[in-house]
Write a structure and sequence with these properties.
The protein has about 290 residues and is of the alpha/beta class. It folds into two domains: about 15-80, Chemotaxis receptor methyltransferase CheR, N-terminal domain (Chemotaxis Receptor Methyltransferase Cher, domain 1); about 95-280, Rossmann fold, CATH 3.40.50. The protein is about 40% helix and about 20% strand. It has helices at about 15-30, 40-55, 60-65, 70-80, 95-105, 125-135, 155-160, 175-180, 195-200, 230-245, and strands at about 110-120, 145-150, 165, 180-185, 185-195, 200-205, 220-225, 245-255, 270, 275-280. A hairpin with a 2-residue loop joins strand 4 and strand 5 (about 185-195). The longest helix has 15 residues, at about 15-30. The model is unreliable at about 1-5 (pLDDT under 50). The chain binds S-adenosylmethionine. The site of S-adenosylmethionine has 25 residues, from loops. This is Chemotaxis protein methyltransferase.
Length: about 290
Protein backbone atom coordinates (compact mmCIF):
# COMPACT_ATOMS: atom_id res chain seq x y z
CA UNK A 1 0.00 0.00 0.00
CA UNK A 2 1.37 3.45 -0.88
CA UNK A 3 0.72 6.45 1.32
CA UNK A 4 0.45 9.92 -0.19
CA UNK A 5 3.30 12.19 0.94
CA UNK A 6 2.47 15.09 3.26
CA UNK A 7 2.24 17.63 0.42
CA UNK A 8 0.18 15.38 -1.87
CA UNK A 9 -3.56 15.64 -1.72
CA UNK A 10 -5.08 12.18 -1.27
CA UNK A 11 -7.32 11.30 -4.20
CA UNK A 12 -7.58 9.76 -7.63
CA UNK A 13 -4.75 11.90 -9.11
CA UNK A 14 -1.36 12.86 -7.66
CA UNK A 15 -1.43 16.62 -6.87
CA UNK A 16 1.63 17.91 -5.02
CA UNK A 17 2.26 21.39 -3.64
CA UNK A 18 4.74 21.88 -6.49
CA UNK A 19 2.00 20.98 -9.03
CA UNK A 20 -0.38 23.42 -7.35
CA UNK A 21 2.22 26.21 -7.35
CA UNK A 22 3.03 25.66 -11.03
CA UNK A 23 -0.69 25.79 -11.85
CA UNK A 24 -1.17 28.93 -9.74
CA UNK A 25 1.77 30.63 -11.55
CA UNK A 26 0.26 29.81 -14.94
CA UNK A 27 -3.26 30.95 -13.89
CA UNK A 28 -1.82 34.24 -12.64
CA UNK A 29 0.56 35.05 -15.49
CA UNK A 30 -1.81 34.12 -18.32
CA UNK A 31 -5.22 35.00 -16.89
CA UNK A 32 -4.65 37.16 -13.78
CA UNK A 33 -6.38 34.50 -11.66
CA UNK A 34 -5.41 34.41 -8.02
CA UNK A 35 -5.14 30.94 -6.43
CA UNK A 36 -4.29 31.08 -2.72
CA UNK A 37 -2.90 27.84 -1.30
CA UNK A 38 -6.14 27.41 0.68
CA UNK A 39 -7.80 26.78 -2.70
CA UNK A 40 -5.78 23.63 -3.39
CA UNK A 41 -8.66 21.20 -2.58
CA UNK A 42 -11.08 23.31 -4.64
CA UNK A 43 -8.68 23.40 -7.59
CA UNK A 44 -8.25 19.63 -7.32
CA UNK A 45 -11.99 18.98 -7.41
CA UNK A 46 -12.56 21.45 -10.27
CA UNK A 47 -9.73 20.08 -12.43
CA UNK A 48 -10.01 16.34 -11.71
CA UNK A 49 -12.70 16.08 -14.38
CA UNK A 50 -10.32 17.64 -16.94
CA UNK A 51 -7.70 15.00 -16.15
CA UNK A 52 -10.35 12.31 -16.56
CA UNK A 53 -11.55 13.86 -19.83
CA UNK A 54 -7.99 13.92 -21.20
CA UNK A 55 -7.10 10.45 -19.89
CA UNK A 56 -4.24 11.75 -17.69
CA UNK A 57 -2.92 10.16 -14.50
CA UNK A 58 -1.28 13.10 -12.72
CA UNK A 59 -1.45 16.87 -12.44
CA UNK A 60 2.16 17.00 -13.65
CA UNK A 61 0.96 15.45 -16.93
CA UNK A 62 -1.81 18.03 -17.06
CA UNK A 63 0.70 20.87 -16.63
CA UNK A 64 2.88 19.47 -19.45
CA UNK A 65 -0.18 19.33 -21.68
CA UNK A 66 -1.13 22.95 -20.86
CA UNK A 67 2.38 24.02 -21.93
CA UNK A 68 1.85 22.87 -25.49
CA UNK A 69 1.05 25.64 -27.99
CA UNK A 70 -1.72 23.58 -29.61
CA UNK A 71 -3.59 23.21 -26.27
CA UNK A 72 -5.16 26.70 -26.30
CA UNK A 73 -8.63 25.15 -25.93
CA UNK A 74 -7.52 23.21 -22.83
CA UNK A 75 -6.14 26.42 -21.30
CA UNK A 76 -9.62 27.92 -21.71
CA UNK A 77 -11.10 24.81 -20.08
CA UNK A 78 -8.77 25.58 -17.20
CA UNK A 79 -10.13 29.13 -16.89
CA UNK A 80 -13.71 27.84 -17.09
CA UNK A 81 -13.01 25.31 -14.35
CA UNK A 82 -11.46 27.93 -12.06
CA UNK A 83 -14.12 30.63 -12.52
CA UNK A 84 -17.90 30.54 -12.82
CA UNK A 85 -20.25 31.85 -15.49
CA UNK A 86 -23.04 32.59 -13.00
CA UNK A 87 -25.07 35.58 -14.13
CA UNK A 88 -28.68 36.72 -14.40
CA UNK A 89 -30.85 39.39 -15.97
CA UNK A 90 -30.78 42.68 -14.02
CA UNK A 91 -28.35 41.20 -11.49
CA UNK A 92 -27.48 43.86 -8.89
CA UNK A 93 -30.53 45.82 -9.95
CA UNK A 94 -29.33 49.10 -8.45
CA UNK A 95 -26.78 49.43 -11.29
CA UNK A 96 -29.56 49.40 -13.87
CA UNK A 97 -31.51 51.96 -11.83
CA UNK A 98 -28.43 54.23 -11.88
CA UNK A 99 -27.95 53.61 -15.59
CA UNK A 100 -31.57 54.64 -16.16
CA UNK A 101 -31.75 57.63 -13.81
CA UNK A 102 -28.24 59.13 -14.05
CA UNK A 103 -26.77 58.12 -17.39
CA UNK A 104 -29.67 57.68 -19.85
CA UNK A 105 -30.73 61.38 -19.63
CA UNK A 106 -27.16 62.36 -20.66
CA UNK A 107 -27.01 59.73 -23.38
CA UNK A 108 -30.27 61.06 -24.82
CA UNK A 109 -28.33 64.11 -26.02
CA UNK A 110 -25.52 62.08 -27.63
CA UNK A 111 -25.31 60.76 -31.19
CA UNK A 112 -22.69 58.15 -30.26
CA UNK A 113 -23.19 55.78 -27.31
CA UNK A 114 -20.70 53.10 -26.26
CA UNK A 115 -21.10 50.73 -23.30
CA UNK A 116 -18.79 47.81 -22.46
CA UNK A 117 -19.86 44.69 -20.60
CA UNK A 118 -16.48 43.17 -19.69
CA UNK A 119 -16.84 39.54 -18.58
CA UNK A 120 -20.36 39.27 -20.00
CA UNK A 121 -20.79 35.50 -19.54
CA UNK A 122 -23.94 34.22 -21.33
CA UNK A 123 -25.19 37.69 -22.22
CA UNK A 124 -27.80 38.54 -19.59
CA UNK A 125 -25.78 41.60 -18.50
CA UNK A 126 -25.41 43.27 -21.94
CA UNK A 127 -29.02 42.38 -22.83
CA UNK A 128 -30.21 44.00 -19.58
CA UNK A 129 -28.19 47.10 -20.52
CA UNK A 130 -29.71 47.11 -24.03
CA UNK A 131 -33.28 46.87 -22.70
CA UNK A 132 -32.64 49.67 -20.19
CA UNK A 133 -31.24 51.95 -22.90
CA UNK A 134 -33.98 51.25 -25.45
CA UNK A 135 -36.64 51.80 -22.82
CA UNK A 136 -35.18 55.08 -21.57
CA UNK A 137 -33.92 56.78 -24.71
CA UNK A 138 -36.25 58.80 -26.92
CA UNK A 139 -36.69 57.34 -30.41
CA UNK A 140 -34.21 58.67 -32.95
CA UNK A 141 -31.22 57.78 -35.06
CA UNK A 142 -28.01 57.29 -33.10
CA UNK A 143 -24.85 55.23 -33.29
CA UNK A 144 -25.33 52.98 -30.25
CA UNK A 145 -23.27 49.85 -29.49
CA UNK A 146 -22.81 47.60 -26.51
CA UNK A 147 -19.54 45.71 -26.64
CA UNK A 148 -19.78 42.45 -24.68
CA UNK A 149 -16.57 40.48 -24.11
CA UNK A 150 -15.58 37.31 -22.29
CA UNK A 151 -12.58 35.01 -22.31
CA UNK A 152 -14.73 31.89 -22.73
CA UNK A 153 -15.70 31.10 -26.36
CA UNK A 154 -18.25 28.46 -25.34
CA UNK A 155 -20.19 30.90 -23.16
CA UNK A 156 -20.03 33.49 -25.96
CA UNK A 157 -21.68 31.05 -28.36
CA UNK A 158 -24.56 30.76 -25.89
CA UNK A 159 -24.66 34.53 -25.47
CA UNK A 160 -24.84 35.17 -29.22
CA UNK A 161 -27.79 32.78 -29.56
CA UNK A 162 -29.68 34.98 -27.09
CA UNK A 163 -31.81 32.05 -25.93
CA UNK A 164 -32.54 31.61 -22.25
CA UNK A 165 -34.61 29.24 -20.10
CA UNK A 166 -37.95 31.01 -19.52
CA UNK A 167 -37.65 30.55 -15.76
CA UNK A 168 -34.38 32.54 -15.75
CA UNK A 169 -36.21 35.55 -17.17
CA UNK A 170 -38.28 36.10 -14.02
CA UNK A 171 -36.04 39.06 -13.12
CA UNK A 172 -36.81 40.84 -16.42
CA UNK A 173 -39.51 43.46 -15.76
CA UNK A 174 -42.89 42.32 -17.21
CA UNK A 175 -43.06 45.21 -19.64
CA UNK A 176 -39.58 44.44 -21.01
CA UNK A 177 -40.40 40.75 -21.26
CA UNK A 178 -43.50 41.55 -23.33
CA UNK A 179 -41.52 43.87 -25.63
CA UNK A 180 -38.27 41.99 -26.18
CA UNK A 181 -38.56 38.30 -25.29
CA UNK A 182 -40.14 35.85 -27.73
CA UNK A 183 -41.05 32.18 -27.30
CA UNK A 184 -38.78 29.85 -29.29
CA UNK A 185 -40.94 27.75 -31.66
CA UNK A 186 -40.88 24.10 -30.65
CA UNK A 187 -38.89 24.83 -27.44
CA UNK A 188 -41.45 25.23 -24.68
CA UNK A 189 -38.96 26.21 -21.97
CA UNK A 190 -36.88 28.68 -23.97
CA UNK A 191 -37.31 32.33 -24.82
CA UNK A 192 -35.22 34.41 -27.21
CA UNK A 193 -34.13 38.05 -27.19
CA UNK A 194 -35.67 40.05 -30.03
CA UNK A 195 -33.59 40.98 -33.07
CA UNK A 196 -33.80 44.63 -32.02
CA UNK A 197 -31.96 43.91 -28.75
CA UNK A 198 -29.48 41.44 -30.25
CA UNK A 199 -28.54 43.97 -32.94
CA UNK A 200 -27.27 46.39 -30.28
CA UNK A 201 -24.80 43.96 -28.76
CA UNK A 202 -21.46 42.87 -30.32
CA UNK A 203 -19.94 39.84 -28.61
CA UNK A 204 -16.19 39.27 -28.78
CA UNK A 205 -13.61 37.03 -27.15
CA UNK A 206 -11.16 38.92 -24.94
CA UNK A 207 -8.82 38.04 -22.10
CA UNK A 208 -9.01 41.14 -19.90
CA UNK A 209 -5.39 40.92 -18.87
CA UNK A 210 -4.17 41.07 -22.51
CA UNK A 211 -4.25 44.02 -24.94
CA UNK A 212 -7.63 45.57 -25.76
CA UNK A 213 -7.97 46.07 -29.52
CA UNK A 214 -10.48 48.94 -29.36
CA UNK A 215 -10.20 52.62 -28.70
CA UNK A 216 -13.28 53.69 -26.76
CA UNK A 217 -14.03 56.01 -25.14
CA UNK A 218 -16.93 54.36 -23.33
CA UNK A 219 -19.84 56.07 -21.58
CA UNK A 220 -19.99 53.20 -19.10
CA UNK A 221 -18.15 49.98 -18.32
CA UNK A 222 -19.77 47.10 -16.48
CA UNK A 223 -17.13 44.72 -15.10
CA UNK A 224 -18.94 42.83 -12.40
CA UNK A 225 -17.97 39.66 -10.58
CA UNK A 226 -14.90 39.13 -12.78
CA UNK A 227 -12.06 40.96 -11.00
CA UNK A 228 -12.92 38.98 -7.88
CA UNK A 229 -10.88 36.13 -9.40
CA UNK A 230 -7.83 38.35 -9.91
CA UNK A 231 -5.02 39.15 -7.49
CA UNK A 232 -4.87 42.71 -6.16
CA UNK A 233 -2.13 43.86 -8.54
CA UNK A 234 -4.10 42.64 -11.58
CA UNK A 235 -7.28 44.26 -10.24
CA UNK A 236 -5.56 47.60 -9.73
CA UNK A 237 -4.04 47.53 -13.21
CA UNK A 238 -7.53 46.75 -14.57
CA UNK A 239 -9.15 49.71 -12.76
CA UNK A 240 -6.50 52.05 -14.24
CA UNK A 241 -6.98 50.66 -17.72
CA UNK A 242 -10.75 51.12 -17.39
CA UNK A 243 -10.18 54.75 -16.33
CA UNK A 244 -8.19 55.25 -19.56
CA UNK A 245 -11.06 53.86 -21.63
CA UNK A 246 -13.87 55.91 -20.02
CA UNK A 247 -14.84 59.43 -21.04
CA UNK A 248 -14.96 62.07 -18.30
CA UNK A 249 -18.20 61.46 -16.39
CA UNK A 250 -18.33 57.84 -17.60
CA UNK A 251 -19.56 55.19 -15.16
CA UNK A 252 -17.76 52.10 -13.89
CA UNK A 253 -19.99 49.43 -12.34
CA UNK A 254 -18.24 46.62 -10.44
CA UNK A 255 -19.45 43.53 -8.55
CA UNK A 256 -20.90 43.49 -5.04
CA UNK A 257 -17.76 42.06 -3.43
CA UNK A 258 -15.26 44.14 -5.43
CA UNK A 259 -13.75 47.53 -4.49
CA UNK A 260 -11.70 50.07 -6.40
CA UNK A 261 -8.20 50.50 -5.07
CA UNK A 262 -4.74 51.61 -6.16
CA UNK A 263 -3.59 54.26 -8.62
CA UNK A 264 -7.02 54.58 -10.29
CA UNK A 265 -8.74 55.87 -7.12
CA UNK A 266 -8.09 59.60 -7.75
CA UNK A 267 -9.58 59.18 -11.23
CA UNK A 268 -13.01 58.27 -9.85
CA UNK A 269 -15.65 59.58 -7.52
CA UNK A 270 -18.16 57.31 -5.82
CA UNK A 271 -21.59 57.45 -7.45
CA UNK A 272 -23.50 54.74 -5.56
CA UNK A 273 -22.99 51.21 -4.29
CA UNK A 274 -20.04 49.69 -6.24
CA UNK A 275 -20.60 52.50 -8.75
CA UNK A 276 -17.93 55.00 -9.76
CA UNK A 277 -17.76 57.98 -12.07
CA UNK A 278 -14.65 59.15 -13.86
CA UNK A 279 -13.68 62.68 -12.83
CA UNK A 280 -12.90 65.32 -15.47
CA UNK A 281 -9.57 65.90 -13.69
CA UNK A 282 -8.08 63.43 -11.21
CA UNK A 283 -8.80 64.21 -7.55
CA UNK A 284 -6.32 63.99 -4.67
CA UNK A 285 -4.72 60.58 -4.13
CA UNK A 286 -6.76 58.51 -1.66
CA UNK A 287 -5.61 55.70 0.59
CA UNK A 288 -6.31 52.28 -0.90
C1 LIG B 1 -19.36 35.28 -12.68
S1 LIG B 1 -19.30 35.71 -14.39
C2 LIG B 1 -19.89 37.38 -14.32
C3 LIG B 1 -20.93 37.68 -15.38
C4 LIG B 1 -21.56 39.08 -15.30
N1 LIG B 1 -20.57 40.12 -15.40
C5 LIG B 1 -22.37 39.22 -14.03
O1 LIG B 1 -21.92 39.87 -13.08
O2 LIG B 1 -23.47 38.67 -13.98
C6 LIG B 1 -17.54 35.91 -14.63
C7 LIG B 1 -17.11 35.87 -16.09
O3 LIG B 1 -15.76 36.35 -16.18
C8 LIG B 1 -15.12 35.65 -17.22
N2 LIG B 1 -13.66 35.77 -17.03
C9 LIG B 1 -12.87 35.17 -16.10
N3 LIG B 1 -11.59 35.51 -16.27
C10 LIG B 1 -11.55 36.36 -17.34
C11 LIG B 1 -10.50 37.05 -18.02
N4 LIG B 1 -9.20 36.94 -17.65
N5 LIG B 1 -10.84 37.83 -19.07
C12 LIG B 1 -12.12 37.94 -19.46
N6 LIG B 1 -13.16 37.31 -18.87
C13 LIG B 1 -12.88 36.52 -17.82
C14 LIG B 1 -15.65 34.23 -17.08
O4 LIG B 1 -15.50 33.50 -18.29
C15 LIG B 1 -17.11 34.47 -16.69
O5 LIG B 1 -17.98 34.42 -17.80
Amino acid sequence: MSLASADTLPGEFAFTDADFEALARLARSEYGLSLASSKKPLVYSRLARRLRARGLATFRDYMSLLDRAEEAAERLELVSALTTNVTSFFREKHHFETLRSALVPELATQKRIRIWSAGCSSGQEPFSIAMTLLDGLPPGARDMRILATDIDPAILRKARAGRHPAEECATVPDEFRARWLRPVPGELDLVEMSAEIKALVSFAELNLICDWPFAGPFDAIFCRNVAIYFDQETQQRLWSRFADKLRAGGFLFIGHSERLSGAALPEFETAGVTTYRKRATPGPARPT
